[in-house]
Amino acid sequence: MILPRTGVAVDVHAFGPEGTPLWLAGLEWPGETGLAGHSDGDVVAHAAADALFSAAGTGDLGSVFGVDRPDMAGASGVRVLGEAAALVRAAGFEIGNVAVQLVGQRPRFAPRRAEAEAVLSAAAGAPVTVSATTSDHLGFPGREEGLAAVATALVVARG
Ligand SMILES: Nc1ccn([C@@H]2O[C@H](COP(=O)(O)O)[C@@H](O)[C@H]2O)c(=O)n1
Ligand SMILES: C[C@@]1(CO)OP(=O)(O)OP(=O)(O)OC[C@H]1O
């Protein structure tokens, strides 16, 4: 019997200097300060990609993409998630779904949830849902030093 496999991941990025564009959940957020990173720092897309690797048992974000690949400098979250999904499929898995939760005081995510889910689902080729929560002003997200995202993914080996 082929059983589904779950994966889990957390990603964290600090905010960059004021004026850095924010890319989050595959969307640009005008007027919001962006995240620092080798790529565009999209914690939601990164957590989704890493959860897929976790489910498939194909390593993790750092070991697959690393920060020493010049072609990944500034890479979009949509690209990271799309490439992760392709690698997981190439390893012999179908993707069931990915669920992500953003942790941060801002941006206010809910008004753009449907838009973000559409963009990320298209990138992954499977349903990606995104929820958001504040940390009630506690910890680094609460102090608005950065954002975190936690994700789970479900994959099934092709029979
Ligand atoms: N960045 C965020 C954080 C939260 N939300 C929405 O607000 C709801 C309540 O959040 P609490 O942390 O106060 O429980 C949450 O369920 C989200 O719908 C948001 O849109 N953006
Ligand atoms: C995505 C990568 C590669 O550009 O860079 P970062 O933007 O630093 O993101 P992180 O979540 O630390 O994952 C590691 C890297 O693979």
TrEMBL record:
EC assignment: the record states 4.6.1.12
Give start and end of each 2-C-methyl-D-erythritol 2,4-cyclodiphosphate synthase domain: 5-155
Per the record, the gene is: ispF
Instruction: Keywords in alphabetical order, please.
Output: Isoprene biosynthesis, Lyase, Metal-binding
| One of the protein's GO biological processes | terpenoid biosynthetic process
Origin organism is Kocuria flava
Locate the residues binding a divalent metal cation: D11, H13, H46
InterPro entries for the chain: MECDP_synthase, MECDP_synthase_CS, MECDP_synthase_sf
Any one GO MF term held by the record is: metal ion binding
Q: Would you tell me the protein name for this molecule? A: 2-C-methyl-D-erythritol 2,4-cyclodiphosphate synthase
Q: Which residues bind 4-CDP-2-C-methyl-D-erythritol 2-phosphate?
A: D11, V12, H13, H38, S39, D60, L61, G62, T133, T134, S135, D136, F140, R143
Oligomeric state and partners?
Homotrimer.
